[in-house]
Amino acid sequence: MRINKYIAKTGFASRRKSEEYIKNGKVFVNGNKLEDLSYQVKEEDEVKIDGKILKIQKNFYYKLNKPIGYISSNYDPHNEKDLNKLLNIDERFFCAGRLDKDSHGLMIITNDGKITNKIIHPSKKIDKIYIVKVDKKLTAYQEKNFMDGLKLSQKEITSDAKISLIDKEKITYKVTIHQGYNRQIRRMFEYFKIKVIDLKRIKIGQICLDDLKDGDYKKLSKKEVEYLESL
Protein backbone atom coordinates (compact mmCIF):
# COMPACT_ATOMS: atom_id res chain seq x y z
CA MET A 1 0.00 0.00 0.00
CA ARG A 2 1.37 3.43 -0.97
CA ILE A 3 2.65 5.38 2.04
CA ASN A 4 0.24 8.34 1.78
CA LYS A 5 -2.73 5.97 1.55
CA TYR A 6 -1.43 4.00 4.53
CA ILE A 7 -1.12 7.13 6.68
CA ALA A 8 -4.61 8.25 5.66
CA LYS A 9 -6.04 4.85 6.60
CA THR A 10 -4.54 5.16 10.07
CA GLY A 11 -6.61 8.32 10.51
CA PHE A 12 -3.56 10.47 11.26
CA ALA A 13 -3.91 12.74 8.22
CA SER A 14 -5.34 12.99 4.71
CA ARG A 15 -3.32 11.70 1.75
CA ARG A 16 -2.33 15.22 0.74
CA LYS A 17 -1.30 16.14 4.28
CA SER A 18 0.61 12.85 4.55
CA GLU A 19 2.76 13.85 1.59
CA GLU A 20 3.56 17.13 3.35
CA TYR A 21 4.75 15.19 6.40
CA ILE A 22 7.02 13.11 4.15
CA LYS A 23 8.44 16.17 2.37
CA ASN A 24 9.10 17.80 5.75
CA GLY A 25 11.06 14.75 6.91
CA LYS A 26 8.65 13.75 9.67
CA VAL A 27 7.84 10.23 8.47
CA PHE A 28 10.03 7.32 9.55
CA VAL A 29 9.78 3.70 8.42
CA ASN A 30 11.62 1.14 10.54
CA GLY A 31 13.63 3.95 12.12
CA ASN A 32 14.72 5.51 8.82
CA LYS A 33 13.55 8.87 7.52
CA LEU A 34 11.34 8.35 4.48
CA GLU A 35 11.80 10.54 1.39
CA ASP A 36 10.15 8.37 -1.27
CA LEU A 37 6.52 9.48 -1.79
CA SER A 38 5.80 6.28 -3.73
CA TYR A 39 7.04 3.93 -1.00
CA GLN A 40 4.90 0.80 -0.64
CA VAL A 41 4.30 -0.09 3.01
CA LYS A 42 4.86 -3.76 3.82
CA GLU A 43 3.05 -5.72 6.51
CA GLU A 44 6.10 -5.87 8.78
CA ASP A 45 6.93 -2.13 8.48
CA GLU A 46 6.73 0.21 11.46
CA VAL A 47 5.62 3.70 10.41
CA LYS A 48 6.08 6.67 12.75
CA ILE A 49 5.28 10.38 12.62
CA ASP A 50 6.59 12.59 15.43
CA GLY A 51 7.44 9.46 17.39
CA LYS A 52 3.92 8.03 17.17
CA ILE A 53 3.49 4.54 15.71
CA LEU A 54 0.73 4.52 13.10
CA LYS A 55 -1.53 1.54 12.60
CA ILE A 56 -4.50 1.13 10.29
CA GLN A 57 -7.74 1.56 12.19
CA LYS A 58 -10.71 -0.72 12.12
CA ASN A 59 -13.66 1.03 10.49
CA PHE A 60 -16.39 2.31 12.80
CA TYR A 61 -19.93 3.50 12.06
CA TYR A 62 -22.19 5.48 14.39
CA LYS A 63 -25.49 7.31 14.17
CA LEU A 64 -25.64 10.62 16.05
CA ASN A 65 -28.54 12.84 17.02
CA LYS A 66 -26.86 16.22 16.56
CA PRO A 67 -28.35 18.92 18.80
CA ILE A 68 -29.03 22.48 17.67
CA GLY A 69 -26.04 24.76 18.14
CA TYR A 70 -23.34 22.28 17.10
CA ILE A 71 -21.47 22.53 13.82
CA SER A 72 -20.96 19.50 11.57
CA SER A 73 -17.21 19.35 12.01
CA ASN A 74 -14.85 17.32 14.17
CA TYR A 75 -12.73 20.39 14.91
CA ASP A 76 -13.17 24.14 14.63
CA PRO A 77 -10.86 26.37 16.69
CA HIS A 78 -13.34 29.25 16.34
CA ASN A 79 -16.37 27.34 17.61
CA GLU A 80 -16.88 25.91 21.08
CA LYS A 81 -19.49 23.41 19.90
CA ASP A 82 -17.94 21.05 17.37
CA LEU A 83 -18.68 17.33 17.28
CA ASN A 84 -15.65 16.45 19.39
CA LYS A 85 -17.59 17.89 22.33
CA LEU A 86 -20.24 15.20 21.80
CA LEU A 87 -18.28 12.17 20.64
CA ASN A 88 -15.81 10.18 22.70
CA ILE A 89 -13.78 9.24 19.63
CA ASP A 90 -10.03 9.84 19.58
CA GLU A 91 -9.62 8.96 15.92
CA ARG A 92 -10.16 11.08 12.82
CA PHE A 93 -13.71 10.78 11.49
CA PHE A 94 -16.04 12.03 8.76
CA CYS A 95 -19.56 13.44 8.98
CA ALA A 96 -21.60 11.70 6.30
CA GLY A 97 -24.49 14.08 5.74
CA ARG A 98 -23.90 17.47 7.34
CA LEU A 99 -26.46 19.59 9.15
CA ASP A 100 -26.22 23.34 9.64
CA LYS A 101 -25.73 24.76 13.13
CA ASP A 102 -29.43 25.60 13.53
CA SER A 103 -30.67 22.13 12.53
CA HIS A 104 -30.69 18.87 14.46
CA GLY A 105 -31.16 15.17 13.95
CA LEU A 106 -29.51 12.21 12.27
CA MET A 107 -25.88 12.22 11.19
CA ILE A 108 -23.66 9.26 10.30
CA ILE A 109 -20.18 9.34 11.84
CA THR A 110 -17.47 7.09 10.40
CA ASN A 111 -13.77 6.84 9.60
CA ASP A 112 -14.62 5.07 6.33
CA GLY A 113 -13.98 7.56 3.53
CA LYS A 114 -15.47 5.34 0.82
CA ILE A 115 -18.76 4.97 2.67
CA THR A 116 -18.85 8.71 3.35
CA ASN A 117 -18.42 9.47 -0.36
CA LYS A 118 -21.15 6.98 -1.27
CA ILE A 119 -23.61 8.62 1.11
CA ILE A 120 -22.99 12.18 -0.06
CA HIS A 121 -22.35 11.63 -3.78
CA PRO A 122 -25.23 13.07 -5.88
CA SER A 123 -25.24 10.09 -8.26
CA LYS A 124 -26.46 7.78 -5.47
CA LYS A 125 -29.64 9.86 -4.99
CA ILE A 126 -30.04 8.70 -1.40
CA ASP A 127 -33.26 10.00 0.14
CA LYS A 128 -32.96 12.07 3.31
CA ILE A 129 -36.12 12.71 5.32
CA TYR A 130 -36.75 15.76 7.50
CA ILE A 131 -39.47 17.03 9.81
CA VAL A 132 -39.80 20.76 9.17
CA LYS A 133 -41.84 23.29 11.15
CA VAL A 134 -42.49 26.60 9.37
CA ASP A 135 -44.28 29.89 10.03
CA LYS A 136 -46.94 29.55 7.32
CA LYS A 137 -48.37 26.98 4.94
CA LEU A 138 -47.48 26.48 1.33
CA THR A 139 -50.31 26.83 -1.16
CA ALA A 140 -51.16 23.84 -3.35
CA TYR A 141 -49.44 25.59 -6.26
CA GLN A 142 -46.32 26.22 -4.16
CA GLU A 143 -46.24 22.59 -3.02
CA LYS A 144 -46.25 21.49 -6.65
CA ASN A 145 -43.37 23.86 -7.46
CA PHE A 146 -41.53 22.64 -4.37
CA MET A 147 -41.67 19.08 -5.70
CA ASP A 148 -41.11 19.87 -9.38
CA GLY A 149 -37.91 21.83 -8.75
CA LEU A 150 -36.66 25.27 -7.70
CA LYS A 151 -33.77 27.33 -9.01
CA LEU A 152 -31.89 28.33 -5.86
CA SER A 153 -28.93 29.71 -7.84
CA GLN A 154 -27.42 29.41 -11.31
CA LYS A 155 -25.86 26.05 -10.41
CA GLU A 156 -28.33 24.84 -7.77
CA ILE A 157 -31.59 23.48 -9.13
CA THR A 158 -33.59 21.12 -6.94
CA SER A 159 -35.39 18.03 -8.22
CA ASP A 160 -37.54 15.11 -7.09
CA ALA A 161 -38.40 16.55 -3.67
CA LYS A 162 -41.40 15.19 -1.77
CA ILE A 163 -43.46 17.11 0.75
CA SER A 164 -46.54 16.40 2.86
CA LEU A 165 -48.26 18.35 5.63
CA ILE A 166 -48.29 16.17 8.77
CA ASP A 167 -49.53 18.71 11.35
CA LYS A 168 -51.89 21.49 10.23
CA GLU A 169 -51.99 23.29 13.59
CA LYS A 170 -48.21 23.41 14.07
CA ILE A 171 -47.63 23.78 10.30
CA THR A 172 -45.18 20.90 10.15
CA TYR A 173 -44.11 19.14 6.97
CA LYS A 174 -42.35 15.90 6.16
CA VAL A 175 -39.80 16.66 3.44
CA THR A 176 -37.72 14.20 1.42
CA ILE A 177 -34.77 15.26 -0.74
CA HIS A 178 -31.82 13.43 -2.28
CA GLN A 179 -29.62 16.42 -3.05
CA GLY A 180 -27.39 18.16 -0.54
CA TYR A 181 -27.05 21.84 -1.38
CA ASN A 182 -26.01 24.15 1.44
CA ARG A 183 -29.02 24.81 3.73
CA GLN A 184 -31.18 23.44 0.92
CA ILE A 185 -34.50 22.94 2.70
CA ARG A 186 -34.35 26.32 4.42
CA ARG A 187 -33.66 27.97 1.07
CA MET A 188 -36.47 26.05 -0.63
CA PHE A 189 -38.97 27.44 1.87
CA GLU A 190 -37.35 30.88 1.73
CA TYR A 191 -38.00 30.80 -2.03
CA PHE A 192 -41.69 31.22 -1.08
CA LYS A 193 -40.88 33.70 1.71
CA ILE A 194 -41.61 31.09 4.36
CA LYS A 195 -39.37 30.84 7.42
CA VAL A 196 -38.21 27.51 8.85
CA ILE A 197 -38.68 27.42 12.62
CA ASP A 198 -37.34 23.93 13.26
CA LEU A 199 -35.62 21.38 11.03
CA LYS A 200 -34.86 17.82 12.10
CA ARG A 201 -33.47 15.00 9.96
CA ILE A 202 -34.89 11.59 10.86
CA LYS A 203 -33.63 9.31 8.09
CA ILE A 204 -30.75 8.84 5.61
CA GLY A 205 -31.50 6.07 3.13
CA GLN A 206 -32.42 3.10 5.32
CA ILE A 207 -30.72 4.50 8.44
CA CYS A 208 -33.26 5.87 10.94
CA LEU A 209 -32.74 8.19 13.90
CA ASP A 210 -34.95 5.92 16.02
CA ASP A 211 -35.25 6.98 19.67
CA LEU A 212 -31.81 8.58 20.06
CA LYS A 213 -31.93 11.60 22.37
CA ASP A 214 -30.23 14.91 21.56
CA GLY A 215 -26.46 14.49 21.73
CA ASP A 216 -26.57 10.69 21.99
CA TYR A 217 -24.93 8.31 19.53
CA LYS A 218 -24.65 4.56 19.06
CA LYS A 219 -23.04 2.02 16.75
CA LEU A 220 -24.88 1.08 13.59
CA SER A 221 -26.27 -2.43 13.53
CA LYS A 222 -24.74 -5.09 11.30
CA LYS A 223 -27.74 -4.76 8.98
CA GLU A 224 -27.30 -0.98 8.75
CA VAL A 225 -23.57 -1.31 7.97
CA GLU A 226 -24.33 -3.92 5.30
CA TYR A 227 -26.80 -1.48 3.74
CA LEU A 228 -24.14 1.25 3.56
CA GLU A 229 -21.63 -1.18 2.04
CA SER A 230 -24.19 -2.14 -0.61
CA LEU A 231 -24.59 1.43 -1.89
From TrEMBL:
<protein>
    <recommendedName>
        <fullName>Pseudouridine synthase</fullName>
        <ecNumber>5.4.99.-</ecNumber>
    </recommendedName>
</protein>
<dbReference type="InterPro" id="IPR036986">
    <property type="entry name" value="S4_RNA-bd_sf"/>
</dbReference>
<dbReference type="InterPro" id="IPR020094">
    <property type="entry name" value="TruA/RsuA/RluB/E/F_N"/>
</dbReference>
<keyword id="KW-0413">Isomerase</keyword>
<dbReference type="InterPro" id="IPR006145">
    <property type="entry name" value="PsdUridine_synth_RsuA/RluA"/>
</dbReference>
<dbReference type="InterPro" id="IPR042092">
    <property type="entry name" value="PsdUridine_s_RsuA/RluB/E/F_cat"/>
</dbReference>
<dbReference type="GO" id="GO:0000455">
    <property type="term" value="P:enzyme-directed rRNA pseudouridine synthesis"/>
</dbReference>
<dbReference type="InterPro" id="IPR020103">
    <property type="entry name" value="PsdUridine_synth_cat_dom_sf"/>
</dbReference>
<comment type="similarity">
    <text>Belongs to the pseudouridine synthase RsuA family.</text>
</comment>
<keyword id="KW-0694">RNA-binding</keyword>
<dbReference type="GO" id="GO:0003723">
    <property type="term" value="F:RNA binding"/>
</dbReference>
<dbReference type="InterPro" id="IPR018496">
    <property type="entry name" value="PsdUridine_synth_RsuA/RluB_CS"/>
</dbReference>
<feature type="domain" description="RNA-binding S4">
    <location>
        <begin position="1"/>
        <end position="62"/>
    </location>
</feature>
<dbReference type="GO" id="GO:0120159">
    <property type="term" value="F:rRNA pseudouridine synthase activity"/>
</dbReference>
<dbReference type="Pfam" id="PF01479">
    <property type="entry name" value="S4"/>
</dbReference>
<dbReference type="InterPro" id="IPR050343">
    <property type="entry name" value="RsuA_PseudoU_synthase"/>
</dbReference>
<dbReference type="InterPro" id="IPR002942">
    <property type="entry name" value="S4_RNA-bd"/>
</dbReference>
<dbReference type="InterPro" id="IPR000748">
    <property type="entry name" value="PsdUridine_synth_RsuA/RluB/E/F"/>
</dbReference>
<dbReference type="Pfam" id="PF00849">
    <property type="entry name" value="PseudoU_synth_2"/>
</dbReference>
